Amino acid sequence: MSLKHECGLFGVLGSPDASGLAYLGLYSLQHRGQESSGIVTSDGECFHAHKALGLVNECFEDEILARLEGSLAIGHNRYSTTGSTRTSNIQPLVVDLKGKPLAIAHNGNLVNARELRVVMEKEGSIFQSTMDSEVFVHLMAKSKKDTVRAMIESAADGVRGAYCLLLMTVDSIIAVRDPNGFRPLCYGRKGDSIYFSSETCGLDVVDAKYEREIEPGEMVIARGGEIASERFAPPAKLSLCVFELIYFSRPDSLVFGVSVDEVRKAFGRRLAAEQPADADLVISVPDSSNAAALGYSMESGIPLEHGLIRNHYVGRTFIYPTRELRDHRVRIKYNPVRELLKDKRVVVVDDSIVRGTTSKKLMRMLRSAGVKEIHVRISSPPIRYPCFYGIDTPTRGELIAANCSIEEIRQYLEVDSLGYLSVEGLLESTGLPPDDFCVACFTGDYPVRFTSEPRKLALEQFDDWCV
Question: N or C: which end of the chain has fewer CB within 10 A?
Answer without folding.
Answer: C
